[in-house]
Amino acid sequence: EAGVAQSPRYKIIEKRQSVAFWCNPISGHATLYWYQQILGQGPKLLIQFQNNGVVDDSQLPKDRFSAERLKGVDSTLKIQPAKLEDSAVYLCASSRGGYYGYTFGSGTRLTVV
Amino acid sequence: AQTVTQSQPEMSVQEAETVTLSCTYDTSESDYYLFWYKQPPSRQMILVIRQEAYKQQNATENRFSVNFQKAAKSFSLKISDSQLGDAAMYFCAYPTGQGAQKLVFGQGTRLTINP
To answer: Which of A14, A51, A91, B51 would suit a FRET pair with B21, their CA atoms being 20 to 30 Å apart?
Structure first.
């Protein structure tokens, strides 16, 4: 089974610029997640999708972050405008739920300068 | 709010020896799962082992095993015969939220293997 694909692998932008990340989950996984992992910390959930719909976006900074999952498959996460504190690894994961846990992608390391 | 606590920011062990990483969690649920994930420098989170709370028997996967104490809400990971490839960040995680589908992670433990 193919894994969770993410791109780009690295991104460096200046503050106030915009950036977008892409994720393709494992085929058949209805649930997709975006996590933010700041250096030295555990991942923090930004948004959870179930098929096309948002289940939880309570920790998504909606004034600058947006995410969509078209047709219940691929997803994009956008930051506009970026701040220095957005420097982190952005992890995408998909799941078929419960006991099976999550399968993660390799993440995108974002550096905002 | 459910929380997961890893009290050891860093641990080190000699190659071939055994090391135990600690994790405590807080939940009011009676049936749930617990996970340990490994994150090497490649950044990809890899599932190491999982435990079902209703099972009294501790989970084991090759050199990895857990000591699950439900009453104490403790879920430690034991790595036997440590290998250089075991060096990584290790995260304890607990699923919560609607349908228990939102993983909450601890702060992580950085494991170093000394040759």
So the answer is: A91
CA distance B98 to chain A (A): 8
* Domain spans in chain B, listed from the N-terminal domain onward: 3-114
Q: Which domains does chain A carry?
A: 5-102 (2.60.40.10)
- Give SS3 for A100: helix
Mode of pairing for the β-strands spanning B60-61 and B109-114: unpaired
pLDDT tens readout for residues A85-104: 999 999 999 988 666 778 99
Residue A1 pLDDT: 63
For residue A30 the two structure tokens come to 């209805």
Which architecture does CATH list for B3-114?
Sandwich (2.60)
From residue B11, alpha-carbon distances to B78, B111, B114 in Å are 12, 5, 11
- For chain A, what's the residue count? 113
Q: Which residues of A touch B (CB under 8 A)?
A: 31, 33, 40-45, 48, 50, 55-56, 89, 91, 93, 95, 97-99, 101-107, 109
